[in-house]
């Protein structure tokens, strides 16, 4: 982190107060510091910049700040009384550091934003995608879906469909419904996509108010009602490249394509009905 030593000292105090909140809450705390910054934050009425944020975070605490010099005996005793091991200070302070100019306001681990399948998951996963041209450019579109069998990650089905008149959102829903409408022979289904709309509306996280999308959503619920369970996962675009590539190809060529595992001939009628 690009912070001055004086700022890191304040961040270290904030981290300590957060970690030991139960033990320290309600107490008067004596704080020894090598710099004048902390005392200025605690007492000044003309703060600016990051200091304002830190002052707000420290305001609930009763701090008695005392500045000491490195040559003072008190400073030596503090160093000798250390009972915890040293850690990477930049990493340890990152959780409480206020955002710098131009940086995101929230520091969230990207891994926490996306749900993952268990490593031992066994079953089918349907990834889908949809795209469309604006009405000015023709108003046509395409959708695609890929059915994977886990844990082998074998492709059971890969298909795309050209749509003469559609929107991006309807194309997304069409891809999801086409992937969910097959007689997959599985009780559990996992549906994944890099677009949030269809996934979050299926989960009920966001409301669906447009009539065209409501019809698609209701159709999807009918298709999945007989399954034992259906899970929806939002994934990064780079992990949905297969379905995205099929949808793009169908959009550019204005043709539909199906690659089907011959051992699943019972699916032929279901696929043919989509055309």
TrEMBL record:
<dbReference type="GO" id="GO:0003676">
    <property type="term" value="F:nucleic acid binding"/>
</dbReference>
<dbReference type="GO" id="GO:0004523">
    <property type="term" value="F:RNA-DNA hybrid ribonuclease activity"/>
</dbReference>
<dbReference type="GO" id="GO:0003964">
    <property type="term" value="F:RNA-directed DNA polymerase activity"/>
</dbReference>
<feature type="domain" description="Reverse transcriptase RNase H-like">
    <location>
        <begin position="2"/>
        <end position="59"/>
    </location>
</feature>
<keyword id="KW-0255">Endonuclease</keyword>
<dbReference type="InterPro" id="IPR041373">
    <property type="entry name" value="RT_RNaseH"/>
</dbReference>
<keyword id="KW-0808">Transferase</keyword>
<dbReference type="InterPro" id="IPR053151">
    <property type="entry name" value="RNase_H-like"/>
</dbReference>
<feature type="domain" description="RNase H type-1">
    <location>
        <begin position="129"/>
        <end position="250"/>
    </location>
</feature>
<dbReference type="Pfam" id="PF13456">
    <property type="entry name" value="RVT_3"/>
</dbReference>
<keyword id="KW-0548">Nucleotidyltransferase</keyword>
<protein>
    <recommendedName>
        <fullName>RNase H type-1 domain-containing protein</fullName>
    </recommendedName>
</protein>
<dbReference type="Pfam" id="PF17917">
    <property type="entry name" value="RT_RNaseH"/>
</dbReference>
<keyword id="KW-0540">Nuclease</keyword>
<dbReference type="InterPro" id="IPR012337">
    <property type="entry name" value="RNaseH-like_sf"/>
</dbReference>
<dbReference type="InterPro" id="IPR002156">
    <property type="entry name" value="RNaseH_domain"/>
</dbReference>
<keyword id="KW-0378">Hydrolase</keyword>
<dbReference type="InterPro" id="IPR036397">
    <property type="entry name" value="RNaseH_sf"/>
</dbReference>
<keyword id="KW-0695">RNA-directed DNA polymerase</keyword>
